[in-house]
Amino acid sequence: MTGAAATLSGPLGQLIVAERFGVEVPTFQGEGPSCGHPAIFIRLSRCNLSCTACDTKETWDWSQFNPTEVSTRQSVPNLLAWVKPSPVELVVITGGEPLLQQRNLIPLVQRLLEEGRRVEFETNGTVMPDPALLISGVRFNVSPKLASFGMDEAKSIVPSVLGAFAASGQAAFKFVASSVADVDRIAELVDRHGLAPVWVMPEGTTVEAITSTTRVLADAVASRHWHLTTRLHVLAFADPKGR
């Protein structure tokens, strides 16, 4: 499933949502270019990949989760009403793979921008973005999944989509890595597909894992003059789920 044909079609104006957070209990964007910025999160359900290292399997792994128990259908007006009381500017739309639902995301994004918000998408880079989302005020954190993350790169690396994001000027490329070999693989993909700017993030779901992997990666990332990002929510909160 790649490109625009992979998108989900549901009732117009409704989105399949796994969770939303950051309004009632404030939090930050934990990764990438906006790391540390106050943020509101809308996590959409469903994904077209099945990475073994995924930490949000409740959005797609129906061998472990019942989709009727871990997702709900929510309307665009409902989501806008939920966001409205918050003074926070940044709204992060993540997943799962949010661009599977981009037809119904377009009106949500348009309204958020009209209200003075800015929007970041967290996407795996396999679904072609609709031109209606490639607009001022919207950014994409594109995170292609390496084989070491437990995904066949024949499915997770889609040159045409990566090229479209690179050409848009509205994307940053954020790779999860656990070794220097991963950094070398990232360099191959960056050179082949003309990806920039590049952020590298240590794989890990605990403070200890993130700290140790950061030290493994740091010199290799610095030598390429790329950006190094942490996972701030894991470091900052005792229970990072929903933060």
Describe the overall structure.
Helix 6 links the parallel strand 8 and strand 9. Helix 2 runs parallel beside helix 3. Helix content is 31%, strand content 21%. The protein has a domain of 161 residues: Alpha-Beta Barrel (TIM Barrel), CATH 3.20.20.70. By secondary structure, it is an alpha/beta fold. The longest helix is centred in the C-terminal third of the chain and has 17 residues.
Tag the structure with descriptive keywords.
243 residues; alpha/beta; TIM Barrel
SS-based class = alpha/beta
Number of strands: 10
| Poorly predicted spans | 1-5
Helix/strand order, N-terminal first: EEEHEHEHEEHHEHEHEH
Number of helices: 8
Could you say which overall geometry the principal axes of the C-alpha atoms support?
globular
CATH architecture of the domain at 12-172: Alpha-Beta Barrel
Major sheet description? 10 strands, mixed
CATH class of the domain at 12-172: Alpha Beta
Strand content: 15-25%
Terminal Cα span: 30 Å
CATH H-level superfamily title of the domain at 12-172? Aldolase class I
What integer value in Å does the Rg equal?
Answer: 17 Å
CATH topology term of the domain at 12-172? TIM Barrel
The portion of residues assigned to helices is 25-40%
Mean pLDDT: 94
Quick structural overview:
By secondary structure, the protein is of the alpha/beta class. The chain has a domain at 12-172: TIM Barrel.
Question: Which secondary structure elements does this structure contain, and how are they paired or packed?
Answer:
Blueprint: E1 14-21, E2 27-28, E3 38-44, H1 67-70, E4 72-75, H2 76-83, E5 90-94, H3 102-114, E6 118-123, E7 138-142, H4 153-156, H5 159-168, E8 171-177, H6 180-193, E9 198-202, H7 207-223, E10 227-228, H8 232-236
Parallel strand pairs: 3-5, 5-6, 6-7, 7-8, 8-9, 9-10
Antiparallel strand pairs: 1-3, 1-4, 2-3
Helix pairs in contact: 2-3
